[in-house]
Amino acid sequence: MSQTIERRGGRALVVYRARVSGSVVLHVLDLAGIFVFGITGALVGVRKKLDVFGILVLALVTGLGGGFVRDVLIGATPPAALLDWWYLAVPVAAGLLTFFLHPGIGRLERLVNIFDAAGLALFCVTGALKAIEYDLSPLSAALIGTISGIGGGVIRDVLSGRVPVVLRSEIYATPAFLGAGIVVLAAALDYYALWVPIAAAVICFTIRLLAIRRGWNAPLPRTP
To answer: What is the per-residue pLDDT across 77-99, written as a single tens digit (0 to 9) for each?
Structure first.
């Protein structure tokens, strides 16, 4: 993996790229996250008994929401979703695929959780990587990665009339912050390897699924 040194504001910014281009890796991961998050939005739409238009809307806003927020916060405007037709085609494809091939209602909740965990993992990593590329501080980059991961799910839940999962007692933002933090820490140590974001995504995904399976919750206030 080669490294390219750029200078912004007098500081050396290390942007690591794959042999062809790191932006290609980021692009593929971004589209993968959009696809799996689009599926979660569509599955929620199926569960809410929405028509095909409603399902596609949920697929679009869920798949693109986190990336929109990320790009606006770091100043990457217009957002990537408005510059590349793939960013619109992928969630639409996810929505249509779910509309025609969705399973029975009884399996929807489990699938939503699995795909949501996958989207959370992919977006927390891509969000952190893009924040690093824009020379944000380590803490800011980790927060951007977290926001990127949870953003689409929050919009999905609000539009479907559910309390956003991040506001409930379930452990949700913590795995995203951990995954983003691993990527940011490696960059802060000038360690760049393709396995780092992959490992970070796997760790985030695993912790989120374990939290669901074992009922790990954040502390709640005591009630008299």
So the answer is: 898 888 888 999 999 999 999 99
Please name which of 27, 21, 16 lies closest in space to residue 186, comparing C-alpha atoms.
Answer: 16
Residues 31-64: pLDDT tens digits?
888 999 899 899 899 989 999 999 999 999 999 9
Kindly write down the DSSP assignment for every residue of 94-131, as one continuous string: HHHHHHHH---GGGHHHHHHHHHHHHHHHHHHHHHHHH
Find the DSSP H helices in the chain: 22-47, 52-74, 86-101, 108-133, 138-159, 173-188, 195-214
Give the three-state DSSP class for 219. Answer: coil
Q: Which two tokens stand for residue 115?
A: 């795909």
What single-letter DSSP state applies at residue 3?
Answer: E
**How far from chain centre, in Å, is Cα 42?**
16
Cα 50 from Cα 43, distance rounded (Å): 10
Distance, in Å, from the CA atom of 77 to the CA atom of 87, rounded to the nearest integer, reads 15
**Confidence grade of residue 11 (pLDDT, cut at 50, 70, 90):** very low
Cβ neighbours of 25 (radius 10 Å): 18
Residue 89, beta-bridge partner list: none
Q: Where are the domains of the chain?
A: 2-214
Bridge-partner residues for 217, per DSSP?
A: 170
